[in-house]
Amino acid sequence: MEKYKVIDRSKETGSTHSLINRGMIPGIVYGKGTEPTKIAFENKILLKLMHTGSFYSTIIDIDIDGKSEKVLPKQLQYHPVTDKLIHFDFLRVQDDTKVTVEVPVEFLNQETCPGLKKGGVLNLVRREVELSCNANNIPNKLQFDLIESEIGDSIKISNIELPDGVIPTITDRDFVVATLVPPTVEVETKPAEEEAEETTDDSKEEKPEDKKEENKEDSKKEDSKEESK
């Protein structure tokens, strides 16, 4: 595990604003039964860690003035206007520290999955699953093999193998993580141009009132012919 050197803010390090201008982000490390420690982390390194895809479930090894600490990211705070990172909270952890983390789910063999090859669609109900475990036993990701999955199958949490000592925080039901649904059938609709043509043709049809007027005119002509005889 790579170790990252941070600044101890309990010493004179300047204001929060000056730290940010120097490319450092202020934060705090806290833990049960320990005193909180104010630190500052280099912004570019912190941003790199944030974009790994598993930031909130990865233990980070930091060096505070030569003292090694293992921490778990818990919260990030952003500026309300600029949306830039301005503060972070890290949880100090030991091997027996119980933590709650969200871990991504990866689905294997999608290219050879029978259901997907038949046109089915993998519907992800949960991209991440919230787990409870010891800090030294956090899985990087959960995996499920789709090699035998067919259309109509549901992948539940009980279908996914979890490491020893790792349990989902939802324990009252066997919840669904993903489903393999049938392909979407598109309903054929008439082009707008055809609908417009049909509307035009309908407007050309004679109205019943027009036909009545024509019949009256024809009757008058017939009566005139009879009188002239």
Could you characterize what this model shows?
The protein is of the alpha+beta class and 229 residues long. The protein has two domains: 3-93, Ribosomal Protein L25, Chain P, CATH 2.40.240; 99-181, RNA Polymerase Alpha Subunit, Chain A, domain 2, CATH 2.170.120.20. It contains five helices and 13 strands. It has helices spanning 16-21, 43-50, 114-117, 192-204, 208-228, and strands at 3-8, 24-31, 34-42, 60-64, 67-78, 85-92, 98-108, 121-124, 128-134, 142-145, 154-156, 167-168, 176-181. The strands form three sheets. A six-stranded mixed beta barrel has the order 1-3-2-6-5-4. A four-stranded mixed beta sheet has the order 10-7-9-12, with no helix packed on it. The longest helix has 21 residues, at 208-228. The radius of gyration is 35 Å and the shape is elongated. The mean pLDDT is 84.
Secondary-structure blueprint of this entry?
Blueprint: E1 3-8, H1 16-21, E2 24-31, E3 34-42, H2 43-50, E4 60-64, E5 67-78, E6 85-92, E7 98-108, H3 114-117, E8 121-124, E9 128-134, E10 142-145, E11 154-156, E12 167-168, E13 176-181, H4 192-204, H5 208-228
List descriptors.
alpha+beta, 6-stranded mixed beta barrel, 5 helices, Ribosomal Protein L25, Chain P, RNA Polymerase Alpha Subunit, Chain A, domain 2, 229 residues
- Main sheet properties: 6 strands, mixed, barrel
Mean pLDDT: 84
- Looking at this structure, what is the CATH superfamily of the largest domain? Ribosomal Protein L25, Chain P
How far apart are the first and last residues' alpha carbons, in Å? 119 Å
Radius of gyration using CA atoms only: 35 Å
The helix content is 10-25%
Relative strand content? 35-45%
Under CATH, the topology of the largest domain can be stated as Ribosomal Protein L25, Chain P
Write down how many β-strands occur, each being a DSSP E stretch of 2 or more residues: 13
* Helix and strand sequence: EHEEHEEEEHEEEEEEHH
Number of helices: 5
CATH class of the largest domain: Mainly Beta
Strand order of the largest sheet: 1-3-2-6-5-4
The helix-and-strand class reads alpha+beta
Domain module count: 2
Overall outline: elongated
Unreliable parts: none
